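Issue: copy button drops trailing tokens. Both records pasted manually instead:
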Amino acid sequence: MKQFFVTGISTDVGKTLVAAILTEALEADYWKPVQTGALEDSDSATITRLISNDKTVIHPNSYSFKAPISPHEAAALEGAHIDPNKIHEPETDNDLVIEGAGGLLVPLNDSDTILDLIMPAYKVIVVCNHYLGSINHSLLTINWLLGKGYDVSIVFNGEPNKASEEIILKKTGVLVLGRIKKEPIINKDIVKAYAKEFRKALVVA
């Protein structure tokens, strides 16, 4: 079984949408270890709403906090401390899609970051969209992961930017797992359509 870790070059770049597409494409299980904010409409709830298959198991968060801020600060507000040693990958015989919180170096506590949750065997999917500064954010994220020895691929989400995409790919050498257009609505049908497009690439990933 394979584990896919979905991270992004920043917050709000489309990680949950990409995680939903991967989960649907593989009929995989889904797990978000650390959730902050929107507990009533969490990322796990969004995944449940967007997928169509009946094989996926949505595993509970290891930590969840009310405030929509960095995990280390959200935990502190509730008098808690995030201990990565207490974050255990759920047992499953299925493929597993894991979604990070924010970007790669978002702090969990004073010493650990989201990066510390990414095991060596995980295949890392970096979600990128285009804005002023996104090339730098993309190169920093991808090259940091490559330097640590991870298997990295990229998903471009939103309005295309040929010049940005070309330079990111030229400077990193990573493969594009897929592209997502700027969709006016996101629902099960949209996710299912993209899942069909992504499935072949995921099988060989």
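Record 2 (pasted manually too):
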Amino acid sequence: MSGQREIYQSSNGDRWTLCSEDDGRVFVLHEANLPSGGVLEQIEISDFLSHGKAGPEQQALLRLIATLAHMN
């Protein structure tokens, strides 16, 4: 992976990270908490945003994207 940025960590320990690869692919990496097995799942951006749009992890990604509009 060429870049990673954590976008959200839940109170139960699940983490969501925005990742990019050298070939330009961008996705969200979900890391389940250890009691749930710590499973890693790569989620395409469109799938991530279309599932549970009101979730705090989706809202965190949308806030991050919104910051791009404010950059000079």
